[in-house]
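SEQUENCE WITH STRUCTURE:
===
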Amino acid sequence: MLEALPAIAVADTAMTDAAITDAAEHAAASPLPPVSPTPQTLAREGRDAVVTGRVLVVADEGTDAGARDRLVRELKAHGADRVDIVAPEEVPGAAAGLLTVRLGQATRPDIAAALGDTRTPARDEGYALRVEGARPGAEVTLGGEDAAGQFYAVQTLRQLFVRAGGKAWRVAGVRVSDFPSMPLRGTIEGFYGQPWTHAERLDQMDFYGDVKANTYIYAPKDDPYHRGKWRAPYPADKLTELGELVRRATANHVRFTFAVSPGESICYSDPADRKALKAKLQALYDLGTRAFSVPLDDISYTRWNCEGDREAFGDPGREAAARAQVDLLNDVQRDFVATHEGAQPLQMVPTEYGDLTDTAYKKTLRDTLDPAVEVMWTGTAVVPPKITNEEAGKASELFGRKVFVWDNYPVNDFGNTSGRLLLAPYDKREAGLSAHLSGIVANPMNQPYASKVAVFGAADFTWNDGAYDARRNWPRAMAYLAGGDREATEALLVFGDLQHLAPTFGATPWQPQAPELARRVTEFWTSWDDGDRAAAVASLRAYARAVERAPATIRGGAVEEGFTVDAADWLDGTELWGKAMVRMLDALTERRTGDKEASDRLLAESNELQRQARAVRVDPPRNSWGKVRPKVGDGVLDSFLVQADVRLRLWDTGGGGENLALEGTASASSVEQNLDRLAPRHVNDGLTGTRWASGYSDDEWVQVELTAPATVAAVTVAWESACAREYTVQTSPDGANWTTASTQRPDACGNDVVRLTATDAVRYVRVRGVERKTTWGYSIHEMGVYGAPASR
């Protein structure tokens, strides 16, 4: 029952009419607060509406309960001491002095009248919102095309509260007409490695509600009951958890989509297996699940799991596999989904999910798969560097329907992501994709809270791809994590820049590492070499201090605690790297002013801090890559420190600090299986995604012949997981006579910096293995040689 409103006097308002009018008129010309996802239309509309001490919410039985509850919560968090809920026909005439908020179906007469010419889009999940701050009778009206639309109207409203001075709040005067560009928006928990906990999933459902994401696909690869033990029913305690998760998702207007992946062992033609699959789906339907998926990715489709399938579908192969899969999927769609009230169309992931090549497999799906079934596609690669309208249009043609994109960002469960948090914004997806796609779900990281940065962007893009701007979205995502705290938001942006690199399965990342730091470092060396050294240090030192201080600020209480837990080891490393950078810049300053003793002391302190930073390990690891060094601004921050170190060591030598290996010629003792992609030229190509790999013996080496003799102060070695237990760095003037300059015994595979005593000029620099750490050979992504040509 709706609570009746007691007698109300105008004197119950929190501010006088004069104060309210002054505040509202002053605010009318102020910029609107940012709203994410970006609405289709949002425009300033007159005065702001001041939140009074008591607020009247007009709702009826058609008002969505989740939307109403969130509305009341937001009003109380923004200045309302009391919120009274009444039916439309029970609004008292004495309520003129209070803020009135109307919430419900857009067709409700009082809402339609209050919205006036603010149109409610006739689209699923669409809504209209109007704020009218005129006095007396300030009103906020939220009308939804459906229940989800009402809920999303409230999610927009919560971002329109602005401070009115002191503890007072107002609602920005706006009119909004809004709807999602894509019908399916959210995430797929589809990564390998440690699945999320139950508490983390519950939090994610609330987060998806906030960002208007309506889809969560439960598909963790390492849940045995999802894949390996798909026939077995879930234990009772797990079913209880899943039931709670379904209810939390539903409250946030998120479709909990249950995925079961039987492809590793199913006999497609066996009625018993089909019965087991439907029983698994039925158990989740009984919990309230209304969306289902049967992923058939990452399986062998050129062999059968039973002889019965050979008899039913012929010899194994692409076309036969497609016919078997279609036969199963059509059965599930027509015999299970279509016969269960409220069930959404079945989703599936094809075995060929990541390219645009037409095959017998795709043709069979295109021609025979039930048109209602949603087909997922990952783009032109497992981790696509971009998705264009042309590519999406082609994929839709190949599968005979709009495709549903499984976007493998920001997932970090593959080798090239080892040691990385992926905090770059969602990007490189072309505006206009909503014309070709039924939706996008992002595959997040094993770290759920850190994943919110990219998912926040994906939700914004899928809601309104035509207006999406990654550069504008990224600070909004950080502000969300920081609860709107400006200092914490800035710290997150600094930290996120150091975790910006986004790898693919290939050699070239699709987003660069530390673009802001890289820009500042480039400016630093330009100013330094131009002679403006004091200004160069002052500018970069301020940013280095921001790097050093960011972890403490992030841990200061404003940022979601879950994020600080997810990022703990990276925050530890960032603080140390930031301190090392500050000390290095101070060493440059002291040397510039002539105090070599102080400079040497500060250089030693920086090197010790770098050693401590390299000793940090992700522990305990959530990812399958294990206890590895957390990567922090690698290739930018560490490269700057090496270059600065070399400049100090070669102070009396002209130039210095350059990576001379980039212009050199690499050769090696051997190449693993004579594979060209592992050739020695990859060890000095400047790409962190390529590598050289040796044959399988201890006494193997790779070397770089420099373009001219040089004084070498440091060598860097970026190891792949097949690294050395012990190795030496050797130098030679002629490639025949070698001197062992350093022997190294690293405690882990990572990025090593080997400092040399720069004396005589050399032409060749070699990394020579003494003992392998694995049964493989040696594998190095990049080898750097830092110094100055002897001719200078």
Summary: Residues 1-18 have pLDDT under 50 and may be disordered. The first helix runs from residue 17 to 27. The domain at 10-178 is CATH 3.30.379.10 (Chitobiase; domain 2).
